[in-house]
Design a protein that fits this description.
Helix content: 10-25%
Number of helices: 7
Structural class: alpha+beta
Number of strands: 23
Radius of gyration: 24 Å
Length: 360
């Protein structure tokens, strides 16, 4: 079993938005004021969208664009969990879950007993936050509700323009593949779920097979078994997860501050390690922190340093009107490196997902 990861680096370009709010702004003069999420580094302020919010946009896009039936959520007291059924629900497979529960079962002698059906799954899809490349100083916009009789009701919100970067990694081997041994994060299926996936009868169709786990062995040295979905199911889930980036949408305050959060620049590659080497190919100018630069030398360095880890081609997508001053330099990279393809955003995503089908 290979250790392949689909690695992605993206840039989004937004103007006058408030994509992820942080609750009440205690520094505002208005009682009704909302602040945006910010982080500080080297004394500078950077706005960001939480990784959880980005995942919410992603999951929502998969539902609306590819008709994914999302796993239903159960709320009990102060906890909530999905159905934790990655065989039936693709989002449980790709985004992971944790469900601690027990249920009554009847044994062969007809006795009813409690059985632990706790299952957990580490998400094959891992992502960063979306954070501004350069420092950002959000401005407070004064607004008011004034359509009612009497005085208007003022409120404030923070808005900003920024180029924001994010990265993700999708574990190609873990996607559609489930362990059942009792280890936290690895007991992905209950006994009943495993049986259903591997069984074919008049009511259910076999959708998975058993394969050897290349890493985990029992006390006799024999490999544990993994349950793996059939190739066409895995291929569909993995491809659609990447393809969703073409249509991803979301963010707070979209009524008055609509922003396009699809990538304006993207790098897609398959690596045989969990490292994400493309995280620092953009930076702000040392002279003017508002000017964002694509570091061509850094990109070349990554392509050279990780040439033995990169499997297949590297796909670079750029939207016209964004980094136009780097078009010639990117074309030169395409000529210098035989495994690099420079395309439009959608072409890069489409062609990369086609490559993935041969790598699964």
């Amino acid at each position: 079993m290979s250790n392949l990861k689909a690695q992605g680096f993206i840039l989004i370009d937004v103007d006058v938005v408030a994509l992820n709010n942080a609750g009440k702004n205690t520094q505002s003069n208005f009682d009704n004021a909302v602040g945006t999420k910010r982080i500080y580094k080297d004394g500078k302020s950077y706005v960001y969208v939480s990784g959880q919010a980005w995942r919410y946009w992603w999951r929502d896009t998969l539902q609306k664009t590819f008709n994914w039936e999302l796993s239903p959520i159960t709320r009990e007291s102060k906890i909530a969990f999905t159905a934790a059924d990655p065989i039936k629900y693709a989002d449980d497979d790709i985004f992971g879950y944790m469900k601690a529960a027990s249920e009554e079962v009847t044994d062969e002698k007809g006795k009813v007993k409690k059985e632990n059906v706790t299952v957990t799954r580490v998400s094959p899809l891992k992502n960063s936050v979306l954070v501004s490349v350069g420092s950002v100083r959000p401005v407070e916009n004064w607004s008011s509700m004034a359509r009612q009789d009497g005085d208007s009701v003022p409120y404030g919100k923070q808005e900003y323009s920024a180029i924001m970067k994010g990265m993700f990694s999708l574990d190609l081997e873990q996607s559609g593949t489930f362990a059942t041994y009792n280890k936290t994060g690895f007991k992905n299926l209950t006994v009943a779920q495993k049986k259903q996936a591997l069984t074919s009868d008049l009511l259910t169709e076999k959708c998975a097979v058993e394969i050897d786990d290349p890493f985990m062995k029992d006390e006799k040295g024999k490999p544990y078994k993994l349950v793996r979905l059939l190739p066409h199911i895995r291929e569909k889930r993995i491809s659609e997860t990447i393809l969703a980036l073409k249509n991803i949408s979301g963010g707070a305050m979209q009524t008055n501050n609509m922003g396009d959060v699809t990538p304006k620049f993207i790098v897609l590659a398959t690596l045989n390690s969990g490292n994400h080497p493309f995280s620092h190919i953009t930076s702000s100018s040392g002279v003017n922190d508002d000017v964002i630069d694509l570091n061509i030398d850094a990109l070349k360095e990554v392509l050279k340093d990780y040439k033995n880890n990169i499997q297949g081609d590297v796909f670079i997508g750029r939207r016209s009107g964004f980094f136009d001053n780097k078009a010639d330099a990117l074309n030169e990279i395409e000529k210098e490196f035989a495994n690099v393809k420079v395309l439009t955003i959608n072409e890069a995503i489409d062609q990369y997902t086609e490559q993935l089908k041969n790598q699964l």
